[in-house]
Write a structure and sequence with these properties.
The complex is a heterodimer of chains A (111) and B (113). Chain A has 111 residues and is mainly beta. In chain A, 0% of the residues lie in helices and 50% in strands. Chain A is globular, with a radius of gyration of 13 Å. Chain B has no helices and 11 strands. Helix content of chain B is 0%, strand content 58%. In chain B, strand 9 and strand 10 form a beta hairpin. Classes of the chains: A mainly beta (111), B mainly beta (113). The interface between A and B is medium-sized, with 22 and 22 residues.
Chain lengths: 111, 113
């Protein structure tokens, strides 16, 4: 079955550590997105990519980095520069200008 | 800048009721609108996608309407069930090419048995 796989489901980060969240899709979608969701708040766009080897900053890109070396993969790295990384992270993909398909999310906690 | 609001923020109804969730957006120049469902701690599940040229979409007990000129969409849930309890989000994609979906804050629905 086609879909988006996010891993891991839960992730714990120590202070000063970089961590990478995985997002893989087999839907043959061109565009991929990373969102952050905090309790009681809406979704905020971190980064997005319309095509391979190209990506754009969203509304809250500071402290995050991404790569898009393959169409199927769009990993997100949460760097030590992100001072408040505890949140629920959601990856999505779409055909150009079509609806979004979301993954099941990764919950990141700072310990 | 496009802004999306959803009313009410939370809703609690007894099982079997028909209910309406509202979504408003400030800029009517949209390409499409999508309704999602999110269960606690889970990702978003797409319910309905309405193109700007459409007035409504239906899937089972769900019906979503779109009035682009007034900047409104409604999600109608017929004969609600406890399994419908979740947060419902709407999102609009602006008409400008390359623009991404803008999400509302969601309506948290509880259907009581």
């Amino acid at each position: 079955d086609g879909g988006i796989t996010q891993s891991p489901k839960y992730l714990f980060r120590k202070e000063g550590q970089n961590v990478t969240l995985s997002c893989e899709q087999n839907l043959n979608h061109d565009a991929m997105y990373w969102y952050r969701q905090d309790p009681g708040q809406g979704l905020r766009l971190i980064y997005y990519s319309q095509i391979v080897n190209d990506f754009q900053k969203g509304d809250i890109a500071e402290g995050y980095s991404v790569s898009r070396e393959k169409k199927e993969s769009f990993p997100l790295t949460v760097t030590s520069a992100q001072k408040n990384p505890t949140a629920f992270y959601l990856c999505a993909s779409s055909i150009t200008r079509a609806g979004y398909t979301f993954g099941s999310g990764t919950r990141l906690t700072v310990v | 800048k496009q802004e999306v609001t959803q009313i009410p923020a939370a809703l609690s109804v007894p099982e079997g009721e028909n209910l309406v969730l509202n979504c408003s957006f400030t800029d009517s120049a949209i390409y499409n609108l999508q309704w999602f469902r999110q269960d606690p701690g889970k990702g978003l599940t797409s319910l309905l996608l309405i193109q700007s040229s459409q007035r409504e979409q239906t899937s089972g007990r769900l019906n979503a309407s779109l009035d682009k000129s007034s900047g409104r969409s409604t999600l109608y849930i017929a004969a609600s069930q406890p399994g419908d309890s979740a947060t419902y989000l709407c999102a609009v994609r602006p008409n400008n090419y390359g623009q991404n979906f803008v999400f509302g804050p969601g309506t948290r629905l509880s259907v009581l048995p």
